[in-house]
Every structure is written in C-alpha cells, then in structure tokens.
Design brief:
By secondary structure, the protein is mostly helical. The protein has helices at about 5-10, 15-40, 45-70.
C-alpha cells in the first residue's frame, strides 16, 4: 500500500509549506497520470494516495481560512 501523509503532519506545517506541498503533490499527480496513460505506471496505489493527500491539504487550508475569517 502506498504511504499517505498523516493529517497531524500536515497541520504542523505553515501556510507557505502547505502551498508548496500542494504544488508538489499536483506535479506528482500529473506525472502519475502521464505514466498511467503511457503504460509505465507500476505503483497504482500511489495515484489514490496522492489524490487523498491533495484533499487533506486543501481541507486543512480551508479550515484555517475559515477560522481566520471568523476571528
């Protein structure tokens, strides 16, 4: 099974680190999609893990934005 990032690890990051992490995950997702299309992808579970990590990062970013707007 592919390794996923823990939510507690993501929450410990600064907003700049989260943005960088999101960008890196999107690049990895693109590369994995490209590999799958050309038949070179071996670790198919990584596609799902990356997609879920992107969702985790975006969720935490949205939570922080929402809590900052409330304050």
């Amino acid at each position: 099974m592919a390794k996923q990032t823990k939510p507690s690890d993501i929450r410990a990051k600064t907003p700049d680190e989260l943005s960088t992490m999101l960008l890196d995950l999107r690049k990895e997702q693109f590369n994995l999609r490209f590999q799958r299309a050309t038949g070179q992808l071996e670790g198919v579970g990584r596609v799902r893990a990356v997609r879920r990590d992107i969702a985790r990062v975006k969720t935490i970013m949205a939570e922080r934005k929402h809590s900052a707007a409330k304050s």
